[in-house]
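Check the record.
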Amino acid sequence: MTTVPYSGPLGATSVQHAPVIETAGGLVWRVRDGRLQVQLVHRPKYDDWSWPKGKLDEGEALPAAAVREVAEETGKPVVLGVPLPGLQYLTPEGRVKRVHYWAARRAQGDVDGRALGARAPVRPVARDEIDKQVWLDADDAARRLTRATDRGPLDALVDAHEQGWLPTHAVAIVRHGRAVARSTWYGAEQDRPLTPLGHAQAAATVPVLAAYGVTMVLSSRWERCATTMEPYVRASGLRPEYSDNLSEAKHERSPSRVAATVRDLLESDRSSVLCTHRPVLPTVLDVLGQHSRRAVANALPSRDPFLEPGEMLVAHVAATAKGPRVVSLETITPPVY
C-alpha cells in the first residue's frame, strides 16, 4: 500500500519544467465465486483497453475527479478505497502526464445514498469516447490491457485483495478551516468563527468526503468545527453528532474520551469524518498509530501542527481477526480557488 494517491517521484528528466497534466481514475473491483474481477473500458479513438480515468476539472480535488471520471465512463457511481500506484509519462507534446488511481467499489444506494446525494450530477460519456465495458478476472484483465504499464496498479490491487485489504471503510480526520486569529477575537473561544478562506475550505471538503462514501459526521461542538462540517451536512442530508469531548478544553481534561471516540470509528463499518482542533490531533493520531501497520504508523504526521487548517487525513481501515487495521493513509488538501 502507499500513503498517497500518487506513488513514485517524478525523477530527474530533461523536462522538469514542463506543464503537468493531472488525471485520476479507479480500478473498479468485485469478487465473484471467490475470484477478484475488475472492470475495463474500451476507447474506440485509440482502440485500447484501459482503466476508467480522465483529467481534473478546474479546482477539482483528485478523489472527486476519480469518482466523477469512473461514473462518466462506466455509467455507475463508485466509492473510493485504498490508493494504488499511479503512472506518469510524457505526452507527444512533451508534457508530463500523471495518473492517480484508487481501488473503487460500486456504490450501494442503501449504504452510500447520503454520500451520493452530496455529489454533483454526472452525465455518461458519449459512445465515441467509451464504447465497451467488460468485467474480467484479474489474470484475464492483465492480458487484455493494451499497455503493460497499466498492470502496475492491477498488481497492487491483487496484492491488497490477497492481504484482505480491499474491503475497507474510511475514517477522515479534518482539522477545521482557517479561523479568525485568537489575538483579534474578543468573544468566547468556543464561538471563534471561520474566516472567508475557512468557509471556502469547508465547502471544498464536500466532494472529497463524498468520494469516500462518508455517511457519519462527528464534530467538536465549537463554532469553527461545526461550521467546517456544515457544507457536507447540508449537501448529504446527514444528521451530525456534536461532542464537547472533541473540543480543546474537554480534551485537555480527558484525552481518553477522544481516544475512545476514534476507536469506535475504526471499529465501525461505516465511513466517517471527525472534525476537531490542532491540540486534539496528537491523541487522534496516537490511536490511529496503535491500529496501523508499522509502515503506515511511521507515515502519520509527527510534527505540530500535524494538519493545516482545512486539511484532512484519510485512514483506510480493514477488518481483521485482530480487530480494525489501518492499511493505508492519505493526506489531502482540498483545492480552494
